[in-house]
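Purpose: get a first structural picture of the assembly so the mutagenesis plan has something to point at.
Setup: two entries, given in the order below. No constraints added.
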Amino acid sequence: MSESLYLAALALYSAATVLYLVFLLRSGALVGKAAGWALTAGFAAHFLFTVSRYLEAGYTPITNMHESLSFFSLATVGAFLALARKYRAAVLGSFVTPLALALMLASASFPSGIVPLNPALKSAWLGIHTIIAFGGYAAFAVACCAGIMYLLQDRYLKKKKLGVLYRRLPSLDTLDEINYRCLSLGFPMLTIAIISGAIWAESAWGAYWSWDPKETWSLITWFIYAALLHGRLTTGWRGRKAAILAIAGFVVLLFTFIGVNLWLPGLHSYR
Amino acid sequence: MNIIVVGLSHHTAPIETRERLAFESNSIEKPLRGLVTLPDISEGVIVSTCNRVEVYAVTRDIAGGIARIKRFLADWHNLPFDEVSPYLYGHHGDNAIRHVFRVAASLDSLVIGEPQILGQVKAAYGYAAEYGTSGLVLNRFLHKAFSVAKRVRTETFIASSAVSIAFAAVELAKKIFNDLSDKTVLLIGAGEMGELAAKHFFAGGVSGVLVANRTFERGERLAEELGGRAIRFDDLYDHLHKADIILSSTGSPHFIIGPKEVAEVIRRRKQRPMFFIDIAVPRDIAPEVNDLENVYLYNTDDLQGVVESNREQRLKEAAKAEEIVTVEAERFLSWLSSLEVVPTIVALRSRFDEIVRAEVERTLAAWKGMSPEHEKRLEAMTSAMISKLLHTPISVLKHTGQGNRIDLYLDALRSLFDLQTEPAGKGEEMLEIEQDE
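Result (C-alpha cells, whole complex):
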C-alpha cells in the first residue's frame, strides 16, 4: 500500500515537472493548471504515504535518508502549494517542482525498508524536532527557488533583453516578498529545531551541545539566515543581495542535511 | 448575394487623402442612408477611423457595386473621382470577408494588435444597425467578424505586449514593482512627452505624482492638472528618495542625475527599487546609474528596443491569427453561398411546376371525359417527373459548398431558366420568391 503511494507520488511529481517546464518555456494557461493539479495530486499521494508509513512503523518516519529526503520533498511541495496561491505565482512551481522531484529521486536511491528504531531515537522529540526542522528546510527551499527567479528576472531587466522567461516570471517585488515570507517562516522553525534538538540531546546523550558536525553546521546555517534577516530588517538587504544569500543559505543547508549525514561521522549520521 | 468592401487605408493612401474622405460619426446617418439608396446596394456599413475609410456593402452586381461606391465616396466629399480613385480598393468574395475579419482582429492595423480598431468597427456597425442600413447579411457578417477578433485575442498573444514607448515603460514598471497603486512618479521636466508618459502611468494605477520643472509655475500647472504636487527644481535631490518611478524629459544639455546621487538616495530608501525612465535627448541620467543594485534605468533607445522585440513577438502571433481568419472566412463564405442556394432551388422548382401545371391544365381542358382518378394519376406522374429531373441538379447545388463554382452554377441556372430570386432582406422573407411573369 505505502509502496504504491510512494510510486504514485513519484510519477505525479515527474508529470508535474514536465508540465511546469512546458508552462515556463512555452506558455499556455491550461498547461499551468494541469501542472498544478498533477502536483496537488502528487502531494496528496505523498502525504498518505507518509501517514501510512507512520502507522506501519509506529514512529515518525524521518529516521534515515530515504525517509527524511522523502519528507523534505513533501514539506517543500506543501510550502509551495500554500504560497503559490497567495502570490499568484504559479510559475514558481517550474523551479520548486524539479527540486522536489530531485529530492524524491534521491530518496528512492536509499534503502526503503522499515527497520527497528535506534533506541536513542525513541522519544516524543523525534517527531517534534524533525518535522519542525524539515518545515524550516522547506521554507528555505522555496526561498532559494524564488532567489534564482529573482536573479534571472533582475538580469533580464538590467540587460534589457526581454526573453520568453521575462514574460513568464513574476515581478521583482513579488519574488522578493516570497523570499522574505519564507525567511520569516523558516528562521523561527530552524531556531526551534535547534533548541528542541539541544533539549532532546540533553535527555538522550546527557549534554545540550556537543559540537557534533550536524550541530556545528546547523549553527552555521542559522547564522547565515540570521544575518540575512538582520540585514533585511536594518539596512535593507533586499532584492539581489537577499536572493543570493537565500541561495547560498540553501546550499549550506543542503550540506548540513545531506553532506553531514553521509560524509562527516557523528551522532547525527543516520543513513 | 455578395459582400463587397470599398475604401482606403494607411496601406494605400497618405493621411491627407484619408482626411478628405473621412466621415464624422455624429453625422453618419445621411451618408449611410445615401449609400443604401444606390442602385443594387441593399445593405451598408461605413467605418471611418484615422487610418481607414471603408464601406462594407451587400450587392448582387459586384463590379457595378464597387464602381458605384467608389463614385459615391468621391461625390459625397465633393472630390473629383479621378483624384481619389487611385487610392481606393475594392474587394469581393473571399477577399472581402478576409479583409473585414483581419481589420476587426487588428491584423490590418498600422500597429498590429492595437485594441482600438475593434471598438471602432463595433461603433460603425452600431450606427448602421440604428439607422437600419445593415440587414440579414451584414448583421451576421459583422457579428462573425467580432467573434473572430475575440478568438484571435484569446487564442494568440497578439495584443499582450506593449508597442509604444510609454506603454512599454509601464509594463516594465509592473515587472519591477508588481503593484503600482502605492507608487509615486516623479516627473522631471513638464514637457509634453513627460506628461504623456505620466498619464500612461496613471492609467497603469500609479497614485502619487511629483513634478519638478525649471520654471516652477509651469510645473505647478501640470501638477495641478495631474492631481500631484510641484517641487522646486533646485530641491530635486531632497525629494528624489520619495519617488519610485522617475520620468525625466528635460531639455538639459548634460546629465542632471548621476550614479553618486542615486547611490545615496537608494541607501536612504533602504534599497527599495527605483525605476528611471530617461526619455530626454540628450539624456538626463548618466548610464552608470543602471549599474547600481536595485536601480533600473531605461532610456529612449532601450525602450525602443523593448518595443521592437514586442513587435517581433506580435508578428509571430499574427501568423497564428491569420490561420484563424482563413478558417473562419471559409466557414462564413459557405453560409453566404447557402443563402443563395436555397432561393435558387425554390425558384427552379416553381418554374418547373408552373410550366407543367400549365401544360397539364391545357391537356385536361382538351381531353373531355377523363375520370377523376385518371386526372390524379396524371398529376402524380408529372410531379414525379419534376422531382426526378431536378434531383441531380438540386443535390449538386446543395453539396457544392462555397467558392466560385457555386456562383457559376447559380448564375447559369438563373439565366438558363430566367429565374429571379430576391434573397436579400429580413430573415423570413429570404425564402419568398418574386417571379417576373
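The interface with chain B takes residues 27, 153, 157-158, 160, 162, 166-167, 169-174, 235-241 of chain A (CB under 8 Å).
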